[in-house]
Automatic annotation (TrEMBL), chains A, B:
Keywords, sorted A to Z: 2Fe-2S, Electron transport, FAD, Flavoprotein, Iron, Iron-sulfur, Metal-binding, Transport
Species for this entry: freshwater metagenome
Family that this chain belongs to: Belongs to the PyrK family.
Residues annotated as domain Dihydroorotate dehydrogenase electron transfer subunit iron-sulphur cluster binding: 225-262
Alphabetized PANTHER family for the sequence: DIHYDROOROTATE DEHYDROGENASE B (NAD(+)), ELECTRON TRANSFER SUBUNIT (PTHR43513), DIHYDROOROTATE DEHYDROGENASE B (NAD(+)), ELECTRON TRANSFER SUBUNIT-RELATED (PTHR43513:SF3)
Cofactor needs: [2Fe-2S] cluster
Gene Ontology molecular functions: 2 iron, 2 sulfur cluster binding; flavin adenine dinucleotide binding; metal ion binding
Protein name: Unannotated protein
InterPro entries with a match to the protein in the record: Cyt_c3_hydrogenase_gsu, Dihydroorotate_DH_ele_sf, Dihydroorotate_DH_Fe-S-bd, FNR_nucleotide-bd, PyrK_electron_transfer, Riboflavin_synthase-like_b-brl
GO biological process: pyrimidine nucleotide biosynthetic process
SUPFAM superfamilies per record: Ferredoxin reductase-like, C-terminal NADP-linked domain (SSF52343), Riboflavin synthase domain-like (SSF63380)
UniProtKB/TrEMBL annotation, chains C, D:
Cofactor: FMN
Compartment annotation: Cytoplasm
GO biological process entries: 'de novo' pyrimidine nucleobase biosynthetic process; 'de novo' UMP biosynthetic process
The name this protein goes by in its record: Unannotated protein
Amino acid sequence: MTWTAASAPLGRRRITVSDRRTYGAYGVLVLADTNGPDPQPGQFYMLAAVERWGGGADERPFLPRALSVLRAEPGRAHFMLEDVGPGTDRLLELAVGDDVWLLGPLGQGFQPPEEGRRAILCGGGVGTAPLAILEDALRAAGTASVALLGFRDAPHAQGAALLGDPRVATDDGSVGHHGRVTELLSAELDADPHAVVYSCGPPPMLEAVRAICEARGVPAQLALESGMACGFGACYGCVVPTRDGSYIRVCVDGPVVDADRLDTALVAGAGH
Amino acid sequence: MTWTAASAPLGRRRITVSDRRTYGAYGVLVLADTNGPDPQPGQFYMLAAVERWGGGADERPFLPRALSVLRAEPGRAHFMLEDVGPGTDRLLELAVGDDVWLLGPLGQGFQPPEEGRRAILCGGGVGTAPLAILEDALRAAGTASVALLGFRDAPHAQGAALLGDPRVATDDGSVGHHGRVTELLSAELDADPHAVVYSCGPPPMLEAVRAICEARGVPAQLALESGMACGFGACYGCVVPTRDGSYIRVCVDGPVVDADRLDTALVAGAGH
Amino acid sequence: MSGAVDFCGLALEHPVINASGTFDAIAAQRVFGDALLADFPFSAFVSKTITLEPRAGNPPPRIYEVAGGMINSIGLPNRGLAGYLEHDLPSLAALPVPLIVNVMGSVADEVVQLVEAVDARAEIAAIELNVSCPNVKTGLDIGADPDELARLLAAVRPRTRKPLIVKLTPNTADVARVAVAAEASGADAVSLINTLRAFAAHSTRPGAPWLGGGTGGQSGPAVRHVALAQIAAVARRVTIPIVGMGGIQNGRHAREALDAGACIVAVGTESFRDPLAGQRIARELAAPRV
Amino acid sequence: MSGAVDFCGLALEHPVINASGTFDAIAAQRVFGDALLADFPFSAFVSKTITLEPRAGNPPPRIYEVAGGMINSIGLPNRGLAGYLEHDLPSLAALPVPLIVNVMGSVADEVVQLVEAVDARAEIAAIELNVSCPNVKTGLDIGADPDELARLLAAVRPRTRKPLIVKLTPNTADVARVAVAAEASGADAVSLINTLRAFAAHSTRPGAPWLGGGTGGQSGPAVRHVALAQIAAVARRVTIPIVGMGGIQNGRHAREALDAGACIVAVGTESFRDPLAGQRIARELAAPRV
Ligand SMILES: Cc1cc2nc3c(=O)[nH]c(=O)nc-3n(C[C@H](O)[C@H](O)[C@H](O)COP(=O)(O)OP(=O)(O)OC[C@H]3O[C@@H](n4cnc5c(N)ncnc54)[C@H](O)[C@@H]3O)c2cc1C
Ligand SMILES: Cc1cc2nc3c(=O)[nH]c(=O)nc-3n(C[C@H](O)[C@H](O)[C@H](O)COP(=O)(O)OP(=O)(O)OC[C@H]3O[C@@H](n4cnc5c(N)ncnc54)[C@H](O)[C@@H]3O)c2cc1C
Ligand SMILES: Cc1cc2nc3c(=O)[nH]c(=O)nc-3n(C[C@H](O)[C@H](O)[C@H](O)COP(=O)(O)O)c2cc1C
Ligand SMILES: Cc1cc2nc3c(=O)[nH]c(=O)nc-3n(C[C@H](O)[C@H](O)[C@H](O)COP(=O)(O)O)c2cc1C
Ligand code: FES
Ligand code: FES
């Protein structure tokens, strides 16, 4: 079984915010995207507010921002955001009825595990987003999965509510396991070395996941982040180096890549 | 009797919008400026929204915008705006509770007429603003005045409600006199050649007023507009040519100037 | 849409093309499918700069956002001449618009080889020569110095009868003087502006560059009025057509570039915000002036 | 506030001065009263460019707002040398900070007269020489050509023992080469960047300029990263101190200019938005790095 994505509609679409929710440190935007195809888990969209995109810190944002799909219902796409700069700041300011420019769905998403293998979803921070839609898709496909999520503290750990029944780790021990989510991952892999790992999160976490899976010979699919200008292969801005010594564009060749294509998941300039 | 302005406080102040009203095509902002000195009629302030100043048409506004005081109560200043570009657009978007940067009061305002002379206030469009505070001041001083206001059409003519009991002219005849406000002015001056004229409005109107008063030998004080970057004499951007062949800065030598200092009130680049 | 225009003998449906390096038609077709061909946003397609040898480009990060635009330090990644002709040209030749190939070399001999190889391919309608390449000896861009550019064109011009567009660098004291040299040396057109040299500071390492490539080039609306000044200065001094670009976001901006003396315009950074920007701008341009 | 700095022998209380032509201390005192003296926003005051003869400046409009900044075409209005010394100098000498006078001439003889007259006045701490003046013969800015600048400085440098700061033009192919020439010719410091040449189109007259003076100069955050690139390029090649400016709006921006190699910074356009910007930036700069 493979999941195949439809072409993105050519051109950005003007879409209305139909809901705006808060989960502790995170905001969720729900967009009424009735004309686009269903996004695949791991795909992303480029978003920009139609009004006042600009005028924030350093007179930014100017370029649209890449956001993973958090969840898709027919005609609606959900996004999870953390306010880390002028772009996410502006998007989080939007209220129901405001409009955004939306381009997508874009990029290569996750692929389901081979028949009979369990999926371990391991993420952190806003990296939670693509794991939620992945969890939905695995459930629909009848594939067993477990989710492990790491957060900084209790306000961030509220993001865990976006998944079914995840195990949570926090840096400060305020919620769940006191420590790193990769410690939970190692324990899971000890118990089930035959599982397949799906991961998204801050670069150091992603790199730790990559290293653990490499050491254990476990297949892993990593959803990368990278600074993007366009999201559709036009600018060559979003590259990451691969093991074979070349660069790939995260927007068209990713964002999900097989971990064994990379020497490192520490992407220069991504994350905070 | 002369009216003298206090120094403006050094530096911009962060001020909250305490009321936002609409008069047809115009919006009125009321700012709770409790620390500034009372503005004089004809003075202006530089305003900018604290949040999202920028991100409008052509990625503007960037510089603050000059706005005449419409009316002053203790601790409150009123402003009248028409949406003509990205700056006024953003300011008119503000709601009660939003903050603006305010610098002022700035510039040279109107001076009262000599004892015993009547004041004719003749304005148009947003040029109504300084005439309202002038009308208040004349009333307080016991000076007789009449106000003549010109507007494009009925939605704009609602701005007339900002003055006591003005005579109105509209270009399309929808309200009041069908024609130019300068026709009303000529009639008033026929009846009272001894009056003093105070005027603010779009450059062609202001120039017509200037020409009428010059031809009749009537003293007139004109409140000029000009593209401004700073408002406090720093940039030399706001100059207008005077009769003596030099340039004066509208922000510090004006905005109100005696009409006989000018050969023309048609300021290059001002107005729409 | 009205607005057909002749540019160096190429019959273009409208006056809006893409700026080199800001639209990858092959990737876009992968993303958007055949809709891209049915609705191609530009009246000609300019490919990314091609060099003789393959280049990997600069290490990331390659992009930094600034007030009204961005700085890029992409580093001209490309498959090299042979790879381009073999892998990319067949797909690009299938586009519904004329194809312009942008080439760059650091010495005349390289440029001659590039131009001769491109000249031999009937699928290619015109050649754009990117002269923002530093001279190996002086470190100055070749296109910053009229004499150096004239020497390069003396070697290159005779090698092709296809229209030859010289893409000028804005990082020079007097771009008009360079344009005059290009015209005198047989260029059929000039295009400008390329990006303005700019530096983005690292967020945590004082004095270090944010961009993997070190210094980069600024584009977008923040440079639009610098572009207009250069286009107008060049238009006063040459009679060959000008491709005007730099920060164009809408029909009014395109109109201002044409009014300043450009024959056609190119859209770069705005396509990143709106993949159909070229088409939108052509439509806005065709609307009557207000 | 900590952050005292020595600049060419001037003991400055903090590293933030004003950019020439962007703050009129006399007008500001008229507007804000003596609070200006009590709370002067800069650690030195740089006056607007003074020329030998009085200049009225350019016809309005003089200002055009752009993405992240503005274009000005003020045209250097000033009372001329004699008028400045008689009318302005007494008030400026009363400011609580050292006074730097910016001068410009189109031929060496003019500059020599300006520098000698300024040198004679003890109230003046240093001289800034604006070399963004077009050469009457070539039309190119004097400061765009290292040789021409060297010739000018050979004539001017011997006429004063006050610190001589050369304000470079950014409209050149290689600003570092010009800075090297300035250093070799005896400049005590260089300042950069001046405004980028830019054109604003008229809203209704196609091809015509909006600005009364025709072309103008762009400033503000839109040029900040161009400034950083030029400051860094100059810092790599000279040892004399650099006054860094161009789009600085806050302490982080100032810090980036210092990290790129500037000794002190100057604030221009941001003062139009916030008359106390200089003071705010100095305060932010003094705060510990985060
Ligand atoms: C495929 C993909 C999916 C993503 N999904 C999500 C998601 O679901 N939710 C979410 O919240 N985020 C997501 N992101 C991340 C998000 O797109 C970026 O963090 C984005 O840059 C935020 O914009 P900002 O303006 O808020 O912050 P920025 O100012 O862009 O800061 C974010 C990071 O960008 C870098 N940076 C800082 N200044 C600049 C500058 N001037 N120019 C360029 N880079 C700078 C720094 O590393 C900084 O930490 C995703 C990114 C990708 C590529
Ligand atoms: C002393 C004074 C008092 C004023 N009082 C009031 C008042 O009470 N109420 C009110 O509504 N207005 C008032 N104005 C006018 C107001 O400040 C200007 O119209 C202001 O420019 C509006 O900003 P904007 O961004 O909305 O429009 P802008 O885009 O600035 O357009 C307004 C006008 O500016 C010019 N313009 C267009 N583009 C540019 C550009 N890029 N750069 C520079 N100029 C451009 C054109 O002439 C245009 O018609 C006053 C002006 C002055 C000087
Ligand atoms: C990401 C990016 C890549 C670019 N690559 C090239 C290139 O390969 N060759 C070239 O001649 N110009 C290149 N340019 C410059 C553009 O073609 C154009 O000259 C410049 O961006 C100004 O136009 P704009 O402001 O519309 O983007 C590139 C610009 C950007 C932003
Ligand atoms: C309105 C205005 C007037 C200026 N006048 C002068 C001047 O008289 N002499 C000069 O050397 N530079 C002048 N400049 C350039 C500034 O000193 C400074 O170099 C430039 O604006 C970049 O800094 P900024 O981006 O902080 O404004 C002027 C700039 C502006 C915006
Ligand atoms: S974001 Fe532009 S190529 Fe990937
Ligand atoms: S607005 Fe700057 S001097 Fe008048």
